[in-house]
Amino acid sequence: MRRIIINEHISLDGVIQAPGGPDEDTTDGFKLGGWSANYGDDISGKTIIDAIQEDYDLLLGRVTYDIWEPYWPFQTGPIADKFNGIKKYVATRTLKESSWEGTVLLNGDTIEQVKELRASDGIDLHMWGSADFIQSLFQHGLIDQMNLWIYPVVLGKGKKLFAAGTLPGGFKLIKHAMASTGLIFASYEANGEVQVGRIGEE
Hints:
- The protein has 202 residues and is of the alpha/beta class.
- It contains 5 helices and 8 strands, in the order βαβααββαβαβββ.
- A hairpin with a 5-residue loop joins strand 7 and strand 8.
- The protein has one domain: 3-Layer(aba) Sandwich (Dihydrofolate Reductase, subunit A).
- The protein is globular, with a radius of gyration of 17 Å.
């Protein structure tokens, strides 16, 4: 089975919209794009590069793909080389073709297609961004691991990682690091159902 691993830059109040730049995603009048730009250091940079250099195929929502497709094919360097050289599965209801090499369009019953991908033999599937698509995957219990870069900032509005309809579930911390800027990296692996009890009881 292939794991689905999400990689997200996230604010303290759970927003994942447009961390990279002012014009990245202005949906619903979001005006704080680029909020992650000033919190990097060597530690945070290493965690991101390490995640990018793992062995995987990409699984992307349409909005993120529309941002990346006209950009990465014309860039050079380790990140561009990685993204341009691997397979990219894209959830879309309307896109019929793409010029970005390695793109595979999932434009049938997307959730069933993702389930088939996840159940197949092969390397893991990594997601970046894709805020809307992630909600569908959470609702169907299809997220196996979360790599989160948690920023010391509250944004007040914007697309959130955990929206209405997210299934309850437990996660286990498997890796973590902290940058000098207060940015925290935490990697969580799915760990079954939520365990409940009463505080103070053994």
